[in-house]
Predict the structure of UPF0301 protein GGR43_001987.
Amino acid sequence: MEQDRTDANGSPRFYAGRMLLAMPGMEDSNFDHAAIAMCVHDEQGALGLDIARQVEGISLADLMRGLGIEAEGLDEVPVMYGGPVDPQRGFVLHSTDWGGQDSVAVAEDWALSGSLDVLKAIAEGRGPRRYIVALGYSGWGAGQLEYEMTRHGWFLGAAIPAVLDTVEPERRWSHCFAACGIDSRLLAGKAGLA
C-alpha cells in the first residue's frame, strides 16, 4: 500500500535502498563520515552497512582464509566496517545477478546476503558481479532511526548508487553527497543559532 511507504507530507517513511550519510560534527565517533547503505527499514527497526570505512589490516582474501574458503585474487578487496553492532558477523551487499536462499532485496540494483554461500560463490568465480563485504552492521530499534532523523546528525541521501563498489571506500561519503548535488567540503560541523 503506497500510503504505508510515505508519511503525511508524502516523504518516504522507510529508507531501505537509500544512503544514510553522517553529517560533519556527529557526536558518535562510530559514525564519523559514515555512508550507510540502508538495507532493511520497517516498523520493526532498521539495518544498514557503513560502506565508507575499511577494517584495517584485513582483505577479503584474509577473511576467506580465516573461514576456510580457498580464494585467489582477492588480496586487494577491502572489508568494510559495517557498523558497531555484532562486528564478528559478516554481510555482503551485492548486485542482484546472484541470489542465495537467504538473500534479501534491498533496491533495484542491490541485495543483501549474510551466509557463507555468497562468499563461496565469489571465491569460485560464480558470485555476484558487484559486491561490498562488511563486518558488523548499524542497527536501530523500532522508531529509533525516525527519532534520530529529527535531530542534527544524519542526511537522507539518494538511492544506493549502482556503481558504489567501484568508488574507493574513502571517497564514498563525499560521492554520495555529490549524488544529491551537495559539495561535502562546504558542510559545517555545527549548527548555528539565529
Q: What stands out?
A: Residues 116-123 form the longest helix (8 residues). The helical segments are 2-5, 60-66, 116-123, 144-148, 172-178. Residues 2-90+136-182 form a domain with the VC0467-like fold (CATH 3.40.1740.10). Strands lie at 18-22, 35-42, 45-50, 54-59, 78-81, 85-95, 104-105, 110-113, 131-141, 154-159.
